Structure formats: structure tokens, C-alpha cells
Amino acid sequence: MSLTVPPALFEAAETGPVDDDAFVACVRDSLPYAWNTVSRVVADLESSDTEFADNVVPPPTEAERGQLLRALASDAIRASLERHFGVKLAFQNCHRVAAFRLGAVDSDTYRRFISTRGQLLNQSPELRGC
Known about the structure:
The protein has 130 residues and is mainly α. It has one domain. Helices cover 55% and strands 12% of the residues. The chain is built from 7 helices and 3 strands. The protein has helices at 7-15, 20-30, 32-46, 62-73, 75-85, 108-114, 116-121; strands at 52-54, 87-92, 96-101. A hairpin with a 3-residue loop joins strand 2 and strand 3. Helix 2 packs across helix 3 and helix 2 (20-30) packs across helix 5. It is globular, with a radius of gyration of 15 Å. The two termini are 16 Å apart. Pfam families: KH_NucS_shadow (PF20704).
């Protein structure tokens, strides 16, 4: 799953630093399922008093699954989404993305979510193929 990079953004990258907003727009336009999933999780977080919000609904198709994996496996994309939304993203299996408040990154809740134990407990026979 590749980004669709507008020519002007590609030219900017060839000559120097890239504007973060332009990169985020490229991600939004190239990976709409991933963008919508992260946006929804962040909106859920912002409308609550909890330390985090997460998505537990698997993507409807392999193409959408690919978008989510691409967005969260790329250090540059993930970091730009975190800066844009002002959250820390965490990811388990093929679809469970969580947005944590920045102040919760040192919390037991965050450490449990990103732990090897948390990863193992989030597995099930239905998820082994993802």
C-alpha cells in the first residue's frame, strides 16, 4: 500500500524538509480507511474522560486492512498522525488501534496495552490470520 504523492509534495521532498500538514494531507488522501479509523478513535477519546479509546472492528476488506497496517507500521506516517491529532497511537493485531492521551503514556493502562501479555491476550482464533 503506497502513498499517492502529489508532484509538488514529491518535488518539495527532493529539495528539503516537507511541511507536516502537506504530508498529513497526503496520508489522509492516500489511506482514507486508516485516516477515518484513527480520526474516529481520536474523536471517541476526545468525547470521553478515559485514558484511551480503541477500535475493535476488523476492516471490511484486505485493502482496508492494508491501509491500516501501512499507516501504523510506518514510523513517519504514525508520527505525523500522532502530532496532527495530539495523541499517542498504539496498535495490536490487524485492526486494534488505540489513541492514548499524551498524559497517559506513563500509565499502567498504556503499559498493559502495549505489553507482550496484552498482545497475547488480544489474540483469538478468528484473528490469527490477520
